[in-house]
Design goal:
There is one protein chain. Strands 5-7-10-9-8-13-14-6 form an 8-stranded mixed beta sheet, with no helix packed on it. It starts with a helix and ends with a strand. The protein contains 4 helices and 14 strands. It has 2 domains: 37-149, Nuclear Transport Factor 2, Chain: A (Roll), CATH 3.10.450.50; 162-279, Immunoglobulin-like, CATH 2.60.40. The chain is of the alpha+beta class and 280 residues long. The protein is elongated, with a radius of gyration of 30 Å. The longest helix has 27 residues, at 2-28.
């Protein structure tokens, strides 16, 4: 009897240790707090798979690789569908990529360049930008959860436009007497406007003239004008008559071009692009 009691006491004494061992086993199976190189490679590979699907127009595969809770999910898909019908031979290249990964989330920051041909006339096009891709690990692999910055996957989902005006200075003596045209190069690149044949920007001077300037599409999302109705006169300018007039009694003056990008991407508010030319 004493022997039985001794064995029972030994069993009870071993129970806490066994319980502690059982509790520590699941902890040992937890995922590491820091992701390894394999996680970074897997997240980047998932993003590359989405890029290749976008280039080939495989919208079904893209939908399977997007997080259903992604903000702007439907708009993102609709933009891709528009690109697949209006752009051909799309090639999207990432460079300067930097991958930061945790156990279940990865952030990929990269610059990108997208080349394509427009369907209407096979005019070549080129868009560039910089984006941050947020990847989330699901049960079936890595999925894209968000895109911030410029969106390379949809030409109408928000990319900050660029406005270029050359030259930056105009000698007053070279401006013709009204009416005349001066060789001013104006170029606007806004991928959100791919498919439009023209776009209108605003031109105004420090002397009070204000005119609308129409730029013509030379490729999807790229608009250009090589000359501007610009002339000099001895009287104050008249606004909205189609010609930028410079009063020769109030020089130097400033000619400013303005374009409002209503959808610059990354949930940013409308952006105003301004370029100024000095006349002296």
């Amino acid at each position: 009897m004493k022997a039985v009691r001794a064995i029972a006491l030994l069993l009870f004494a071993c129970l806490p240790a066994a319980s502690a061992l059982a509790q520590s086993s699941p902890a040992e199976e937890k995922k590491p707090a820091v992701a390894g190189f394999d996680d970074m490679k897997a997240a980047r590979a998932a993003l590359d798979e989405i890029i290749r699907a976008y280039e080939t127009g495989d919208i079904g595969l893209i939908q399977a690789r997007l997080d259903p809770a992604m903000i702007g999910y439907q708009r993102f898909i609709d933009g891709m569908r528009r690109d697949s019908t209006s752009l051909k031979q799309i090639r999207l290249h990432l460079f300067e990529a930097n991958v930061t990964a945790g156990p279940d989330v990865a952030m990929i920051q990269a610059a990108w360049e997208k080349r394509f041909f427009g369907v209407a006339d096979f005019t070549p096009g080129l868009f560039t930008g910089r984006s941050t891709f947020l990847m989330h690990r699901a049960k079936d692999g890595w999925r894209m959860a968000a895109v911030s910055g410029d969106n390379p996957f949809s030409s109408e989902s928000g990319v900050l436009a660029t406005l270029t005006v050359m030259p930056s200075a105009i000698p007053f003596a070279g401006i013709p007497v009204c009416a005349g045209t001066f060789p001013v190069s104006i170029e606007l690149v806004d991928p959100d406007l791919a498919g439009l044949q023209s776009v209108t920007i605003e031109a105004f001077t420090s002397q009070g003239d204000r005119e609308s300037v129409v730029l013509t599409a030379i490729s999807p999302g790229r608009f250009r004008r090589a000359g501007l109705p610009l002339c000099q006169d001895a009287i104050p300018p008249f606004s909205s008559n189609g010609t930028v007039e410079i009063n020769n009694t109030a020089v130097p003056a400033t000619l400013t071009f303005r374009y409002i990008d209503a959808n610059p991407g990354a949930n940013r508010p409308p952006a105003t692009l301004v370029r100024s030319v000095t006349i002296r």
